[in-house]
Amino acid sequence: MQKQYFYTTKQLPVHNPNLTSSLNERDGIAQPDSISKQAIAHVTKLRKNQPSAEELVDGILAGNKTALSRAITLVESTNTAHLEKANTVIAQCLPHANKSVRIGITGVPGVGKSTFIEAFGKHLTGLGKKVAVLAVDPSSSLSHGSILGDKTRMEELVKDENAYIRPSASGDTLGGVARKTREAIILCEACGFDTIIIETVGVGQSETAVHSMVDFFLLLKISGAGDELQGIKRGIMEMADLIVINKADGDNIKKAGLAKTEFNRALHLFPAKQSGWQPKVTTCSSITHEGIAETWQTISEYFTLSKNNGFFNIRRSEQNSYWLTETINEQLKANFYSREDIAKLLEANKKAVQNSELSPFAAAAILLERYFADK
Length: 375
Known about the structure:
- By secondary structure, this protein is an alpha/beta fold.
- Helices cover 46% and strands 11% of the residues.
- Helix 3 runs antiparallel to helix 7 (181-190) and helix 5 packs across helix 12.
């Protein structure tokens, strides 16, 4: 039987007698608070009671992960009021640093970096190592936000007492690392972590920054992802100390073996490394853990060689010099853009450049002249 629908214009009871429309909104049921007021008060109290630099340092040296996280947050802050406190924490932690090995891990998006690091990290903690993972997530050029989901991906490693995972946003920093990754390394070392793993955003051949802060550079690749000549191109391949063909499981084992052969041939085309190390290629599966132990064995062989021939210490010294100049550049840039008079002049010159009234080079000269004139 077909349903029949009837419509009426009969006016419903309303709260306001002056309303004559038949469409009126009645008061609904108030939604309960979704957040505990007690929780809000607790978080607010914690934020107001900021620990001193000395308290943070004491916590870090005692192996307190909470103090370590708060110190890294302080160091990463762009608030100029936090700079002096952050520098104090770094200075007091520096004598307790430099007692770890630093491993950089990179690869194109989708190669399985997070899965590999979890399997690799669990293997290291099983050997009694204390592992800190500094994961860098790409920031959106539009919203400037980052997902920071590495802790979610590494659900097993994050529960390990001997592991620490800290995701950070890359921001506008190029090179696959975050702006303050170097300082975070020092804090993690002072906290007692003997193996520091830096996972880059995986942006391709521009990841020279991470190479300048690690002792060992591992490049993750997958087979069947395109022309193998792409991997032979100079750039990131030259920096790699070890190439690992990931996802070598199931039907992909044969393809991984072929890729290993291709990359081995390519590595022999590059000049010898100053360390005296011959880069190697291996395969692994982050799912079955095949090849994970062999990867660490290869890395251990590298550290034995580089420490025995003195290259390890030479490399650390070069890195310190490099980051001195990088820090100077960063501080000059931050100081330049933070000045109000420069900001106003910059906006005025931008409009002139956009309207083709002034060349970019002339505008830059005007801004720099104004900046140094007031020094």
